[in-house]
């Protein structure tokens, strides 16, 4: 059994038999239209004025797909390494803080002020006692490091 397929071009403007498929682009979109001789000539006449005033587009920089894939892979690897460093630093901090929390804290001895004997009659004015500097417990801040262990 033989099969015959026949394609018939029909003018997209008026439905008459078409002789041409005209391809054109506008705003980055490519179009095709089937036209008879008269309509194809009219379209070219209308566009001719603009084609004469136009310039060719600049060629886009050639960047191979493989090169882009390599650059993306390198960026992913760098991000992965940075994430591992951040997680490592967080884990070390967490371990340091849990060790510190597990250590028994010895209470500091509270100093009792010594009783002051007052003399009922002093001939010389007493010197004003100098205030002792306030005792502040030492606090150690967790250390962060970006180095990978």
Automatic annotation (TrEMBL):
Biased composition (Basic and acidic residues): 92-102
Pfam family membership, one: Lsr2
Domain Lsr2 dimerization: 1-55
Region (Disordered): 51-149
GO MF annotation, one: DNA binding
Coiled coil: none
Gene3D superfamilies (alphabetical): Lsr2, dimerization domain
Record's protein name: Lsr2 protein
Organism: Saccharopolyspora spinosa
């Amino acid at each position: 059994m033989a099969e015959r397929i026949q394609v018939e071009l029909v003018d997209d403007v008026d439905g008459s038999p078409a002789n041409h498929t005209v391809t054109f682009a506008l705003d980055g979109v490519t179009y095709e239209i089937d036209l008879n001789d008269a309509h194809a000539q009219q379209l070219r006449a209308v566009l001719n004025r603009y084609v004469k005033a136009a310039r060719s587009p600049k060629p886009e920089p050639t960047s191979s797909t493989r090169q882009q894939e390599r650059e993306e892979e390198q960026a992913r690897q760098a991000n992965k390494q940075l994430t591992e460093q951040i997680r490592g630093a967080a884990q070390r901090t967490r371990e340091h803080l849990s060790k510190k929390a597990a250590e028994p804290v010895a209470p500091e001895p509270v100093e009792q002020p010594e009783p002051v004997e007052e003399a009922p009659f002093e001939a010389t004015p007493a010197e004003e006692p100098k205030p002792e500097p306030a005792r502040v417990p030492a606090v150690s801040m967790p250390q962060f490091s970006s180095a990978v262990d």
